[in-house]
Amino acid sequence: MPPDSGLLPVTILLAVCVGLLFFLLLAVFGINGRLGRVERLLAEKKESKPAPESISAVESAPGGPFEAFLEEDPSRRSLSKKEQSAAYRKWRQQNGMNWSNS
């Protein structure tokens, strides 16, 4: 048996391992690129999302129902917009101003 006869299987095994590592590296970069794309899309969607609880111009007009709601209890003006909207919806429900009460 020649001394270098065991070298061929080791060389083939090494080449296969290097090839597999190369394909694994390509897959990692591909996943990284897709993940970056998904993150950008989510960030764009979050930025362009409209405020779900905005008060219409008619309701906030001078003398409108929202103004009456705020004048009823002056401490409501110091609430955050989200808290004001939630309290306003509750106030409208109590006063029979929602469609569900018609």
Describe this structure in words.
The model has no long low-confidence stretch (mean pLDDT 83). The chain has 2 domains: 11-45; 57-97, no CATH class. It starts with 6 loop residues before the first helix and ends in an 8-residue tail after the last helix. The chain is mainly α and 102 residues long. The protein is built from 4 helices and no strands. The chain is rod-shaped and about 100 Å long.
Order of helices and strands: HHHH
The helix-and-strand class reads mainly alpha
The oligomerization state is: single chain
Number of strands: 0
Sheet-strand content, in percent, reads under 5%
Discrete helix count:
4
Q: How many domains in all? A: 2
Give the helix proportion (percent range).
55-70%
Largest sheet: none
Q: How many angstroms separate the termini?
A: 99 Å
User: Nearest-angstrom radius of gyration?
Assistant: 33 Å
Q: Which regions are unreliable across 5 or more consecutive residues at pLDDT < 50? A: none
Rough shape?
Answer: rod-shaped
Query: Mean of residue pLDDT?
Result: 83
Would you summarize the structure shown here?
With 102 residues, the chain is mainly α. It is 67% helix and 0% strand.
Architecture blueprint of SSEs:
Blueprint: H1 7-48, H2 57-60, H3 65-72, H4 81-94
Question: What attributes characterize this protein structure?
Answer:
mainly alpha; 2 domains; 4 helices; 67% helix
